[in-house]
Structure formats: structure tokens, C-alpha cells
Design brief:
26% of the residues lie in helices and 34% in strands. The chain is an alpha/beta fold. It has a five-stranded mixed beta sheet, sandwiched between helices. Strands 1-2-3 form a three-stranded antiparallel beta sheet, with helices on one face.
Length: 113
């Protein structure tokens, strides 16, 4: 998987354009993903991806970094030994491309605010 480009509200992955938030884990890309609370990422929101036992979870917190992470999620990741990279989405996309092929990766990407 390679992220070809990201702009507010739009991301291109392997030549395909997506215009909604994405949850990604090995072998899967969920394009109809949404969180139970719009700007708060919680454990149940990403549990599906975490079931694949990734080594790293990359979170794109939005173009302006407005999506917060629930402390319970952060604690869970620490307990499971899953590295967390949480950055504004443009930076998160760069991290994903850098990490591609270097282990089991999951990502939760908020494409707008």
C-alpha cells in the first residue's frame, strides 16, 4: 500500500481516490469507517483493526489535528505493546509510506478537520 497524495477531504492510495475517513489494517481498507464520537478516537472505533495484532497504529488526526485520542485507547495500546504514531493526517500519511513493508501496520485516518 502506498499513499500517493492527501488533501483536505481526499486521499489517494495505490491510485484510488477516497473521500471518507479510512480504517486500514493488513489486507483490509475500510472506506465507510466512522467513529462513535466524531472528533474523539476510542478503542471500539479501531478494535477491528487492532484484532489483526499490528505492531504500529498510525492515526491521522485530521488536516488541522482536531481529532483527539481517548486516554483509554492510548493506555490499551501501551499495554499491548503497539506503537502509536498520532499526527495531523498529512504527516501521518508520510509515516505510513515510510513504515510500509516494515511490519504489521494499522491506520485510522481522519481526512477533514
Amino acid at each position: 500500500m502506498h499513499i500517493d497524495g492527501y488533501e483536505f477531504g481526499s486521499i489517494v492510495i495505490d491510485g484510488r481516490t477516497y473521500r471518507s475517513d479510512l480504517l486500514i489494517w493488513p489486507g483490509h481498507l475500510k472506506s465507510d469507517w466512522w467513529r462513535s464520537e466524531g472528533h474523539l478516537l476510542q478503542l471500539p472505533d479501531v478494535f477491528e483493526a487492532l484484532a489483526a495484532e499490528p505492531q504500529v497504529l498510525v492515526v491521522g488526526t485530521g488536516a488541522y489535528g482536531n481529532m483527539a485520542l481517548d486516554p483509554e485507547l492510548v493506555s490499551y495500546l501501551q499495554d499491548k505493546g503497539i506503537d502509536l504514531i498520532a499526527r495531523p493526517t498529512r504527516e501521518a500519511c508520510h509515516s505510513i509510506n515510510e513504515l510500509a513493508g516494515k511490519g504489521r501496520l494499522a491506520a485510522a485516518l481522519h481526512l477533514t478537520c
